[in-house]
Amino acid sequence: MEIRYDPKHNIAYLRFRTSDEQVETIQLSDEVLVDIAADGGIFGVELLNANEQLGFLTDSEIRVTDEATGETVCLPLKL
User: Fold this and answer.
1) Which long-range contacts link 2-6 to residues 24+ away (Cβ below 8 Å)?
2) Rounded mean pLDDT of 12-36?
């Protein structure tokens, strides 16, 4: 997974696949677009007005929690 952020335009892109493939974009709202891969899986999600939606610009880390084990990993965030 890769997260990209463009501070100039305040857009974040969460990419779930590493391959370059054709996608179909579905607009879920004024601020959320989802790219669907040819096999029907989610390729990525684009968030407009990203800092409001994610709040990650005010946090110093990203927390990833495994719901099965309850284990949390904290990744430092430097922008």
Assistant:
1) 3/62, 5/50, 5/56, 5/57, 5/79
2) 93
pTM above 0.90, yes or no: no
Tens-digit pLDDT profile for residues 54-79: 775 555 677 889 899 999 998 877 65
Q: Give the tokens for residue 57.
A: 């610009």
Per DSSP, the three-state class of 52 is helix
User: Do residues 76 and 64 touch, judged by C-beta distance below 8 A?
Assistant: no
End-to-end, the C-alpha distance of the chain in Å comes to 18
Torsion of CA 7, 8, 14, 19, to 10 degrees: -130
Beta-sheet strands, E only, within 1-79 = 2-6, 11-15, 23-27, 32-37, 42-48, 61-65, 72-76
